[in-house]
Every structure is written in structure tokens, then in C-alpha cells.
Amino acid sequence: MEILIYIYVFVLGASLGSFYNVVGLRITKGESIIKPGSYCPKCNHQLSWLEMLPLFSYLFLRAKCRNCKAVISIKYFIFELLTALLFCFSYYHFGFSWELIIALLFVSLLIIISVSDLEYLVIEDKIILFFLVIFLLLRIFIPLPPQFSTFNDHYYLESLIGGLFGFGLLYIIAIIGKKVYKQEVMGGGDIKLYGIIGLILGLKMTALSLLFASILGTVFGVLLISLKVIKKTNPIPFGPFIALGSLLAYFYGYEIITWYFSLFLY
Questions:
Q1: Number of neighbouring beta carbons within 10 Å of residue 85
Q2: How many angstroms separate the CA atoms of 106 and 219, rounded?
Q3: Nearest Cα residue to 162 out of 177, 147, 149, 146
Q4: Quick one: what percent of the chain has pLDDT higher than 70?
Q5: How many Cα atoms sit within 13 Å of 213 on the Cβ side?
Q6: Which residues contact 17 (CB under 8 A, 6 or more apart)?
Q7: pTM value?
Q8: Dihedral through CA 226, CA 176, CA 173, CA 232, nearest 10?
Q9: What is the Cα gyration radius of the chain?
Q10: SS3 letters for the chain?
């Protein structure tokens, strides 16, 4: 029975991952996510149901459009697979609990913003606003997990403080960075995104996620510059690193903090 649940969650994640690719790519361009149906960006060929099966179609078509033979970006396959795996991991971590709803929606948000940020270096306000309303309502009925809390039983207060902290800290960094470097160092989408992350994670996990995201972004950026893949002046999308850092804090933040203090205090 358990294996059937994982299969169902995997298929659900892969299917939604395919849709999230569409959302992340189209909304930023101001296009409808409903009409027209999926099409090849090279020849505008309307895809049949066989060409839209998550994961399978990419492999079946050998990463090429059936009509014009243009190469299909592997990013579609990666995000479908990643969404499926993260959905399964969310179920593994939380089981059938109310927090699972938060986890699946959180994964959904992070996948969508990663798609748009990697493609256009933009995290669209429409996406942020849509999920902000959802998470504000959900955190009323599904309070922060106790292990995330800094203020004992004040779970609702913790979420609000986390949201204000996430938004406020990045906003201050953006202002200081602009004055020092005379250019934008933090996108508005990143700042607003951290307001949502704060609602979901609370104060200490939000701080931890920002630490993780900063380390990952810095290491990856230095590596690409060292390998001369990009120049120092090239912008690097921070959204995927925010996503990765936030997921690490969400799923393993409590264990990491506990391990750290046990290592240095005992």
C-alpha cells in the first residue's frame, strides 16, 4: 500500500512539475497559462497528449521536437523530476499530516520561481502575491511546527515575525547594497519571496535558510567565475539558491541546529 502512495505522489509531482514549467515561463512573459495549449517554442507546433506526458515524453522523443527536430531543453525534464522527488520526500518527511499541504505548496512555489528566475532573472509579483495569500490563510489553520518555534507556544506570532524578518532583512541589504555598489544587488522578487518563506519557516529557520542560500550562491558563483563559465559582471539568479537553502532549513534545519549545539556545547 505504501509503495502505491509513493507512486501516486511521484506521478502527481511530475505532472504538476510539467505545469509549473509552463507557469514559470509564461507568466513572466505576460502570457496565459491556459491558452494556447503547450507548443514547441521553435516551430509553434501544438503538442499532442503523447508529447506532453511528464518525463516519459522527453525520453520517448529523445529530447527533440517531433515536428521540427529542435532540441528540447533538459530543464523541462529536470524540473518535472525534481518536483516529483520533492513531493515524495515531503510525504516521507511529514506523512499524512496537515503540514504536508504546506510542504507540497512550498515545493510548488520554489519550483515555479526557480524556473522563471533561471530563464528571465525575474521572480514575478503575480506568483508571489498568489502564494502569499494562500500561506497567510494556511498558517492560521496549520500553525508552525513546534521544532521551528523560537517563542515557545506562540506559533502564529512566530510566523508573522519570520515573514517581517525575511522581508525586512533583505530589503535593508538591498538598500545598503545599492548605496555601496551603485546598482541593484537584490531583486525585488527575492525580497518579497523571503516574506513568504518567513511565514512558512518562522524566525530561526528563515535566518538559517538565508545563511544556506548565501553560502550556496557564493560557492556556485565563485566556481563558475573560476571556470570562466561566466564573467564577474554577469548576474546570477539567486532564486534557485533561495529555494535550495529554504528546503534544507525546512526539512533539516532543526536537526542541523541540534547537531551544531551538541557538537560545540558538550
A1: 16
A2: 25
A3: 149
A4: 96
A5: 27
A6: 54, 79, 80, 81, 82, 83, 84, 111
A7: 0.92
A8: -10
A9: 20
A10: CHHHHHHHHHHHHHHHHHHHHHHHHHHHHCCCCCCCCCECCCCCCECCHHHCCCCHHHHHCCCECCCCCCECCHHHHHHHHHHHHHHHHHHHHHCCCHHHHHHHHHHHHHHHHHHHHHHHCCCCHHHHHHHHHHHHHHHHHCCCCHHHCCCCCCHHHHHHHHHHHHHHHHHHHHHHHHHHHCCCCCCHHHHHHHHHHHHHHHHHHHHHHHHHHHHHHHHHHHHHHHCCCCCCCCCCCCHHHHHHHHHHHHHHHHHHHHHHHHHHHC
Residues 59-97: tens digit of each pLDDT: 888 778 777 877 888 999 999 999 999 999 999 999 999
145: left (phi over 0), alpha (psi -120 to 50) or beta: beta
pLDDT surpasses 60 at 202? yes
Highest mean pLDDT among 128-137, 145-154, 180-189: 128-137
- How many Å from the N-terminal Cα to the C-terminal Cα in the chain? 43
Residue 264's pLDDT band, with cuts at 50, 70 and 90, is: low
**Residue 138: which of 92, 88, 104 has the closest Cα?**
104
Assigned C-alpha cell, 36? 494556447
| Dist CA 72 CA 53 (whole Å) | 14
State how far the Cα of 113 lies from the Cα of 107, in Å rounded to an integer. Answer: 10
Q: Which residue ranges make up each domain of the chain?
A: 1-96, 123-266
